[in-house]
């Protein structure tokens, strides 16, 4: 029985107890199995670090506090949970039972892990029994330094819910405006923003402004507040005008900071933030100039702040790629990757650029490097599935999409793409299962409704097909597939004029050979043979 209450141990209390039991035994049987999950084990059970050397260490492990600027995304804990589940599945002797009490008081990391293990590990291998209550643990008597150590570890690992809970405790127990209070406040606001709790994050930044007259704190608070508006998870709620006002304030303060190195770093950081705002305004040239000015400032820092340089190089690569300067973009991605070869995001981004350039082997290599760089990464498998689809490897694409859904059952685009592939290969019932699973996540999704309309048409349920495709066209009037599939439906239903109308609209949006072929069939049915012949010729030009 493992006590899952988060109070004594914090994040991954359950995981740490389970790993302490399994890792020593697994090392005796297969050091490679343990090594393949070094990141997950060390993150969840740091006391096992002496037993589990870091094979894939990112550079931030050896950096000072002010140099560790990257905040792991909330989805990182899902990656860790999948990696731990895969390790447990291989390491646990079959037929065992895991019992966990105090689940109602468990940390979000353990709740996510338990959900993943129950989904991915068969009960015959490991039966999991959960009890909501249990014995009350001893009161938490951590002093400020101990609390800070746990907040700092949680921030580095991406345990954002714990950062918020413990950071708020730290703020309440320290003098507002003081150095330690500031470290708690900064981490708390940043974690709240990462969790999408923007109103609460804004309130913490307001507390900083009310409690302090330190210019560095005000500059950081202005930057943080600007990013709440610029990066709001709901694009409709982004306020780029207000974001610009705040980032300009951050820049104004950073410009007059007395220490040259601090000034160069913070000013470059703020200009990079303004570049994001310019990008979201569609001002690519202005964004590029700002990032380049930040890179120039970073040169004043010597070897310090390597992560800052890495982020700037990757940002410039994205802008250069968007502007069509692909050679320079690839050079910047290579430079960013050289700084930290175990940071997977840049392999994905470079792989996507190589994919667009038609360099499929190179793109594939980058996607697979991203897979190896850390815990299971759904996006890497999703991107490889897209590449495999283009190359005609339908079986490989379906396998990758299946793995994406296994890793993350909420990955909507994986359901969309797998449903489309299954429908295209005549596996209609399997496609329907994916369509319904995707619509349960996002009702009214036009891509899924389009596939549903295609399936209903093939099954002869024309009224249901028309309802789905009408809804798809209404929800996404710029999506050619919705118009094209409705055109096929209307032809099947005997509305040939309507079929030509819908197929013509689809061709206007995205000319494709099958659309011309289908319109040619409808045109011949109307006796318009010359127009049909012209469409057949257009279709042949694609081959």
Q: Can you characterise this structure?
A:
The chain is globular and about 85 Å long. The protein has 28 helices and 3 strands. A 3-stranded parallel β-sheet has the order 1-2-3, covered by helices on one side. The protein is mainly α.
In terms of DSSP E residues, the strand content is under 5%
For the residues shown, what is the average pLDDT? 96
Coarse structural class: mainly alpha
Strands ordered across the widest β-sheet:
1-2-3
Oligomer: single chain
What general outline do the C-alpha atoms trace? globular
Number of strands: 3
Radius of gyration, taken over Cα atoms and rounded to an integer in Å: 27 Å
Query: In DSSP terms, counting alpha (H) and pi (I) runs of 4 or more, how many helices?
Result: 28
**C-alpha termini separation:** 64 Å
Helix content: 55-70%
Largest sheet: 3 strands, parallel
Residue stretches low in confidence (pLDDT < 50, at least 5 long) are none
Which key phrases capture this entry?
mainly alpha; single chain
Quick take:
The protein has 543 residues and is an all-alpha fold. The chain contains 28 helices and 3 strands. Strands 1-2-3 form a 3-stranded parallel beta sheet, with helices on one face.
Blueprint (SSEs and pairs):
Elements: E1 2-3, H1 6-9, H2 13-29, H3 31-35, H4 38-44, H5 76-91, E2 96-101, H6 108-120, E3 126-130, H7 144-157, H8 160-172, H9 179-194, H10 198-211, H11 215-230, H12 240-255, H13 260-280, H14 284-298, H15 306-322, H16 326-339, H17 345-356, H18 360-373, H19 378-390, H20 394-407, H21 412-424, H22 428-441, H23 446-458, H24 462-475, H25 480-492, H26 496-509, H27 513-525, H28 529-540
Parallel strand pairs: 1-2, 2-3
